[in-house]
Write a structure and sequence with these properties.
Blueprint lengths: L2 H28 L8 H25 L5 H28 L10 E3 L2 E3 L1 H28 L2
Antiparallel strand pairs: 1-2
Length: about 140
Amino acid sequence: MKALTFCYVSAGVFFLGALLSGVWKYIGILNSDKAEAPEYVSVLHRSGLMYSFAALLLAQFAQLNPYSETVKLWSCVAVIAFFAFAQTTYLIHALLKDTDNQFRKPYILGQWQMPGYIIHGSMILLILAEIGGFAVLFWGFLETL
């Protein structure tokens, strides 16, 4: 699969997920005394919208990048895989209704208390992959100027 195709398919999946979670958010608002959706339903909706457009941005930088198709694809995969990982955690929290802040101690996932090293280790990997993947694409683009 080419980097551009991967980014466009990912953008479509994130955008469709955002639209569907928008319906879930609306239903939550209708069923709430305060006219508010559950926190992680809202987070899921907003982040899906942002990640869909971020995937398009990645596609643009991949297109403008002179590196090999393999380098561009893996750079995009690194970023988008962690977008999907984040979306998955938001979806799980939305379904379980277990927290309104996944970073508040104790770290709860359903009935389980998660150790801090899993939460913080995941975030460190996310930071490295997202920044690193984009940096490769951006650096390649800058080399073409």
